[in-house]
């Protein structure tokens, strides 16, 4: 099968490697031609996935037409803020699969990536992929599982077959909103968990924060169209565990750095996207407009965007009005 992957960062490259190991022909698109050329020459994406060799089935390209030509589906793995512009530059595509874990706030609305895809390509079929999938572990062939959700059961099954293999188990789901929101919201909670790590608050505090964080994800996610059980599955609880615990997670590590005094400006010098920072801003804007209560997200926003002292912010969370669990 021919598949295209848009975005040659950590996750796009890992997905291309996974697909090629299963025998598929993969066009790996980077908007930067110098990166595509370097990948072609070295067969390694050293900046993102050191030590992982690109199988022969991966063809790095930097022209949109060459990337998507003949593709059974097109996986999108660029940061959320780049999706709209990237899709605007693509020729007609039959099916998009979002591997992006973020949301955007635009025109007074909170938009999931699949909704941006539908607007950009009204005729395309759409699916979303999420789960506890740290790119480096997946690319190194360590076992992992994910869920692909679509209203189009045939597309979900096609993506499941294409990506699934001996080291990657893929489940399907009809719950697009739940799977997308689980993947996006857990990044905010991973930032909070990283802050708890940076402040050395201990494992009790981190467990309490994550449990309440999961509750916040469920409350928000079900109010926005997701099914409650989805948030207890791979794209919710599963990904929350991986992201909030792993030293590989950029969101968790960024939280730790904030707790140790780093600012947003320090973070922006980094090469890789910290998607939770942008999701926090989008959720904050949405909450300000809708009045929806998101206490942990608001606490993260205050540290990241207002520079408030993380220890004080977390103490204030502890002093909220007592209530039943
Ligand atoms: N890295 C992981 O472990 C992982 C796993 C699952 C999902 N994701 C999600 O996948 C998405 C991409 O993450 P990543 O880890 O590959 O990011 P990354 O920072 O490693 O790479 C992003 C790639 O997109 C390119 N890019 C950056 N801004 C762009 C823009 N505005 N338009 C087009 N291209 C742009 C970069 O040059 C880079 O090649 C994020 O939403 C992330 O949450 C990441
Ligand atoms: O490195 P992070 O924090 O962007 O997280 C990567 C993945 O989303 C984990 O599933």
List low-confidence stretches: none
Cα end-to-end separation: 49 Å
Largest sheet: 8 strands, mixed
Report strand order across the widest sheet.
3-2-1-4-5-8-9-10
CATH topology of the largest domain: Rossmann fold
The number of distinct β-strands equals 10
Mean pLDDT: 97
Sheet/helix structural class: alpha/beta
How much of the sequence lies in strands comes to 5-15%
- Helical run tally: 16
What would you say the CATH architecture of the largest domain is? Answer: 3-Layer(aba) Sandwich
Task: Please give the share of residues in helix.
Answer: 40-55%
List each distinct ligand once.
nicotinamide-adenine-dinucleotide, SN-glycerol-3-phosphate
Give the full name of the CATH homologous superfamily of the largest domain: NAD(P)-binding Rossmann-like Domain
Order of helices and strands: EHEHEHEHEEEHEHEHEHHHHHHHHH
Number of domains: 2
Radius of gyration: 19 Å
